[in-house]
Write a structure and sequence with these properties.
This protein is an all-alpha fold. The N and C termini lie far apart (43 Å).
Length: 200
Amino acid sequence: MPDPQQLPFDLLDLVVTGPEAPDGAPDGVPGNGRTPGQRLTGWLCSLVWSHDYGRLADLRRPEALSEPRLRAASFSPEEDQRPVFERVAFLFARYHAGKSVPQAGFGSMGDALRRIGSPAGRGQNDPGAKRLLDRLVASRELPVRHLQHAVERARACEVAPPSWALLAEDLAAWKAAGRKTPYGWARDFYTPAYPAKKNG
């Protein structure tokens, strides 16, 4: 594990250190008040920081029953959410292939798609990003192939990925009543929220 003093500010609070929560803090181990998705993200970021390319390569092989895949699944709070945590770890590893600095990401997948495009247009002004969002939100089942395509596009466009922690939460709630996750992604894509401007 890298020295916490060398981590960028946005990653410092994600990487789990100290005696309270051993490396990664899977199932049942206290995580300093972090959500399961945040603990997963901290562990994944530590793999990039420590240049653990072997484990990252294992995560890029989603069908292999490897230690890193099972470890990623162990962060899931519920047994039926284990495949979601495995998939998020796979997407993280795909995005970080060949990278030496981890990105914890920010915003939802809708926010990430809004950043995708070319100088001619991004987000809703990019037909490819718009089609990708349509495919994602139309899916009743977990849109595994389209998620991978979205992450690959973010990587190719050299834009920040979605928050991996939030992605785990969103995908865990994919089939929840009201389809809040797809609705939220579409809202974030088409109507971004801007921080309130403060006078003075």
